[in-house]
Structure formats: structure tokens, C-alpha cells
Amino acid sequence: MTQEEIFDVIIVGGGAAGLTAGIYSSRAKLSTLILNEGAIGGQMVLTEEIANYPGVESTKGYMLANTMKNQAKQFGCKIKSNLQIKSYHLDENIKRLVLEDGREFYGRSVILTPGGRPRPLGIPGEDEFKGTGVSYCATCDGEFFTGKEVIVVGGGNSALEEAVALTTYAEKVTIVHQFDHFQAFKHAVEQAEKNPKISFIMESELRSFEGNGVLKEVSLEHLPTGNNMTMNTDGVFIFAGYIPNTEDLQGIVELNERKEIVTDSDLRTNIPGVFAAGDCTVKKYRQVTTAVADGTIAALSAAEYLRS
Amino acid sequence: MKHLHTNLHEFETAAELEKYINENENVMVCCGRMGPMCIPVYGVMEELEEERENIKFAVMAFDSPEAGIIRNDPACRGFMGLPFTMYYKNGKVAHATSSIQNMQQVTSVLDEHFGA
């Protein structure tokens, strides 16, 4: 191993937190590499419009992500994306990350920003009907359901807001939620409740998707009674929250019961030289702005660690 | 006029697409918008374009009337999720997928139809 092959900072993840950490550490003249398993931008690119990012009146999520990526690259940050990390070796002074294709990368410090992803229901037929009835994006796929009947799964802001948005296209929208109340903000619930095209099935969960090439029906369970029913539908939109992408980090860094990475206020994990930032960490609010703040703190903490 | 902000070749007409797939043995075309389900697929294609020299990668704007050549293809019957991704072998559709696909899913199709 030559000295040149060891990066000062390796960042895992290329969402808002990872790109910001990349901007800060590469601008601080630290050799920096971002390893990203998906497409650059993370959850940012899942956002059609970002209207609450300070200093920017309104922008598309992918445009903000692209600007951050270009900023990081201009400061010398190297970015490798769409790869798969096979194993993490973080306990030594020089950290080692091994990719599925056999490549190895070494770093004096590591910032973990793997982000999160939409929570799938994990029930039979979900993968089979993805794109032929099962969707995770109303903005993208809503118009395919013009004049049809659809189900929205979830009880948070995304579910309620997307259900209202879907009424632009769909003839009827049924919201299925596992609890007897919604987690969404009051105004989002009110908007849904007063929409004549929306109806509700509470305290129920989907159990399977059925069809023949395209989705035809779903089976539901009413949780308090255990009664099952089938329901004809043309489509199901799933907004069941997010889960942190930390499966590969289990047993490596400290996670809480929700599989989020535990850090201190400087975003240090339980391993010296390993930091974490963004949606994968224990936090209450998950916004682009909070991810950007996290990325900044983690990069500065990593720089301080390297100086010491 | 180009509609998709990618680094990939973009077809503006159906005739251009037809000519391209007939002149190239292996072609992957992603037909979508600049939306959250489509952008990750473009990202995968941009990465693969550097590695897979035996395959041509391109995009087409879903809302262009010219994209009817993809939207109305029999292989896309029943598709209800963007993007529509087409894999052409010697000018014919070898495979088609609907909705977001990750690197593993795309490379699996490429390996199967175009060779590893």
C-alpha cells in the first residue's frame, strides 16, 4: 500500500450529508473520496420541488444534488457511485472498505452517510407488481391511474399529501393506515378528509398483492379483529416511512433499536475516526437542511480528529 | 431540443431511435422524465456507459410525442411506472422494464441479453 492510496476521509453515501461532508473536507485540502451505493443525491432527488432551502427560492431536488456534486468535485473530491460495499474494517487506525468487485479503499477517517430509503411493505407480490400497479411516487406515476381506483398506504405527511395529489387523476383514492389516527400534520389530514374522492380504512394492513401481469386486487387485514378482506384496485401507492440503510453496519458501529447510528453531538460514533451524518443517525428531524448541517459537522470533526 | 439533463445521448425523434437501434447491436434506452424514479436509472446508465463499450446507452423524453414509439410498444403493455426502459438487440426489443431499477437489476438484464 502506498501513501497516495490512503485517503484522509472516505465518505460512504452521496446524499445531502455526504456531498456536504465532501465539499467541506476536500475544501480543507483533505484527500476525500465518496463511495456511493446508489445514484448521487440520495433522498434529495426524490423531491420534485425544494422550496425551503435557505437562499434558494425554489429548485428541483436533482438540480440541488447536481450542484452539490459539482461543488464537491471542483474542490477535488473524488466520487464513485453505483457500487456495492462488501465489508467494513473500521477498528484500525487505517480504515479499509472492500467492494463487491474486490477493490479496496483505505482511509484515515470515515464518515458514514448511507441515508435511508422508502420502507417497502415486504409482502407477497410487492416486487412482482412494481411498475405494473405498485408505485412509490405519485408525482411520477399518478397520471397512469387517470379515472382509476387506487389505494394509498401510510399515515404520515407524504401519504396524506400524495393521496390528495392523486385525486387529480384517480377516480377514487382509499387510504389504508395501520393505526386509528394519522401521524401527519393536522392541515394535511384536513385536506384529505374534506376531499370527496378520498375514503379511509383505518387499523388495517395490506397482506398481499394479486393480479395477472398487472395488479388486480389486494388482501387486507383489519388488525383489531384479524378479519381479512380482498379489495379490487388498479394501483397501490406506498408511503410507509423510511428505514436507515444500516444493515451492513450492524455489529460494526453502535446502532439503536431502530437501526440508526448512535453519535455524540460532534457526530462521532463509538469507533475513533468514524463519524456519521444525515438520515442514518439518531435524530428527530430529517430534512435536506439538517443533513447539510450534519455533513458540515462530521467533516469538521473528522478534520479535527486527523489533526490530533 | 433536449429535455433531459443527463450526459447520455438523447433521441429527439422516433426515426433517430429506429436508425440507432438498427445500426448498433446492443442498445439500452431509458424513456422518462427528470423525476425521482428516472434519475437513478440515468445515473446507473452514465456509470455503465464508461464500462460497457459493447452497449450504447441513450434516453428519450417520455412526454415527447415522438416517444410514442416506446410508450406504445407492445412490450410496454401494462406498464404504469416511470421510466420505461428498453433493451434492443439487433433492432428488436430484447427486454423492457417499468419503474426504477438499481445497478444490480440493470446489469442483470445487460448480462443476460448483451453478455457480461
Description:
Chain A is of the alpha/beta class and 308 residues long. Chain A folds into two domains: 182 residues, 3-Layer(bba) Sandwich (FAD/NAD(P)-binding domain); 105 residues, FAD/NAD(P)-binding domain (3-Layer(bba) Sandwich), CATH 3.50.50.60. Chain A has six helices and 19 strands. In chain A, the strands form five sheets. In chain A, strands 1, 2, 5, 6, 7, 8 and 19 form a seven-stranded mixed sheet that branches. Chain A starts with 5 loop residues before the first strand and ends with a helix. Chain B has a single domain, classed as Glutaredoxin. In chain B, 34% of the residues lie in helices and 25% in strands. Chain B has a five-stranded mixed sheet, sandwiched between helices. Chain B starts with 8 loop residues before the first strand and ends with a helix. In chain B, 43% of the residues are buried. At the A-B interface, helix 2, strand 10 and helix 3 of A face helix 2 of B.
Structure, briefly:
The complex is a heterodimer of chains A (308) and B (116). With 308 residues, chain A is of the alpha/beta class.
Write the layout of secondary structure elements.
The complex is a heterodimer of chains A (308) and B (116).
Chain A: E1 6-12, H1 16-27, E2 32-36, E3 49-50, E4 59-60, H2 61-74, E5 78-81, E6 85-89, E7 95-99, E8 104-112, E9 116-118, E10 134-135, H3 138-141, E11 149-153, H4 157-166, E12 172-176, H5 186-193, E13 198-201, E14 204-212, E15 214-222, E16 227-232, E17 235-238, E18 242-244, E19 274-276, H6 288-307
Helix pairs in contact in A: 1-2, 1-6, 4-5
Chain B: E1 9-11, H1 14-23, E2 26-32, H2 39-51, E3 56-61, H3 68-71, E4 84-89, E5 92-98, H4 103-114
By DSSP, the count of extended strands of chain A is 19
CATH architecture of chain B: 3-Layer(aba) Sandwich
At the first level of CATH, the class of the largest domain in chain A is Alpha Beta
Tell me about the biggest sheet of chain A?
Answer: 7 strands, mixed
Considering the protein shown, what is the CATH homologous superfamily of chain B? Glutaredoxin
How far apart are the termini of chain B? 34 Å
Classify the secondary structure makeup of chain B into a structural class.
alpha/beta
Instruction: Please indicate the percent range of residues of chain A in DSSP E strands (runs of 2 or more).
Output: 25-35%
Mean pLDDT of chain A: 93
Helix content of chain A: 10-25%
Q: Structural class of the secondary elements of chain A? A: alpha/beta
Assembly state of the chains shown: heterodimer
Which radius of gyration of chain A do the C-alpha atoms yield?
Answer: 22 Å
> What are the low-pLDDT stretches of chain B, counting only 5+ consecutive residues below 50?
none
CATH topology of chain B: Glutaredoxin
Q: What is the number of helices of chain A?
A: 6
Name of the CATH homologous superfamily of the largest domain in chain A: FAD/NAD(P)-binding domain
User: Total number of helical segments of chain B?
Assistant: 4
Assigned CATH class of chain B = Alpha Beta
